[in-house]
Amino acid sequence: MQRLTFVFLSLFICLTLLGNFPITQAQEKKTGEQKAQSSSWIKVAPKDAGFSVLMPSTPKEMIDSVVYGSIKVPASLYMAKMGDASFFAGRVGNFPEQLVTAGYVTGLFENAHRVFFETKGEDGKTNTLPFTKHDISLNGYSGREYVADCGPYKKNDAPCNNTIRVYKVGDNLFIVGMSGTKSILSVELTEKFFSSFTLTQ
């Protein structure tokens, strides 16, 4: 099976998970933590994206595609920052019928952890960030939740982690996740973010 290529998703998510966070001083960190708890969140519901979600600030939109041979499948990702934490949600679809029938959507869903947590070292060997995986669902659709610590290149010494959920919805894949220091990503904040994610198509 030829490989489907995530153009921007793999680059963006891998940079996020490997810890591409700004260096912060103690006072800046404290301010970020206070902002995380008190800021007014924004409902993000991009036209034709098929989902809505709450984010702590106006997100940056990234548009690209998943490529298979001559076929390009639209892909979009929306990312917002809050202190040294990142919040993102996106969609890849609609996959054409021939790719759905051939099992490529299922294949991407089953191997999403490779996009998130696999990197190649200077020696060419594949390195995998340790993670846990749990089956979840949303509106009856199958999903997976992945949780991992940040990678070796993070710039902030504080403990941090990544939580990512992937859903397979017909000929679409939806991705929603957060990454940052554990002091900011409290249980309440995590629940607020993920519980706000809804399918609108």
Please count the beta strands (DSSP E, at least 2 residues each): 13
* Percentage of residues in strands: 35-45%
**Discrete helix count:** 6
Gap between N and C termini? 30 Å
Give the structural class.
Answer: alpha+beta
SSE topology string: EHHEEEEEHHHEEEEEEHE
Strands side by side in the biggest sheet: 1-4-5-6-12-11-10-9
- Using the CA coordinates, give the radius of gyration: 17 Å
Amount of helix: 10-25%
Describe the global form.
globular
Q: What is the average of the pLDDT values?
A: 79
Uncertain regions: pLDDT < 50 for 5+ in a row? Answer: 1-8, 18-38
Largest sheet: 8 strands, antiparallel
Report a brief summary of the structure.
This protein has 201 residues and is α+β, with helices and mostly antiparallel strands.
Brief descriptors of the model:
about 200 residues; alpha+beta; 3-stranded antiparallel beta sheet; globular; disordered N terminus
Q: What is the element layout, followed by pairings?
A:
Layout: E1 5-6, H1 8-17, H2 26-38, E2 42-44, E3 51-55, E4 60-68, E5 71-82, E6 85-92, H3 97-101, H4 104-110, H5 112-117, E7 118-120, E8 126-128, E9 131-138, E10 141-149, E11 160-169, E12 172-181, H6 187-195, E13 198-199
Antiparallel strand pairs: 1-4, 2-3, 3-13, 4-5, 5-6, 6-12, 7-8, 9-10, 10-11, 11-12
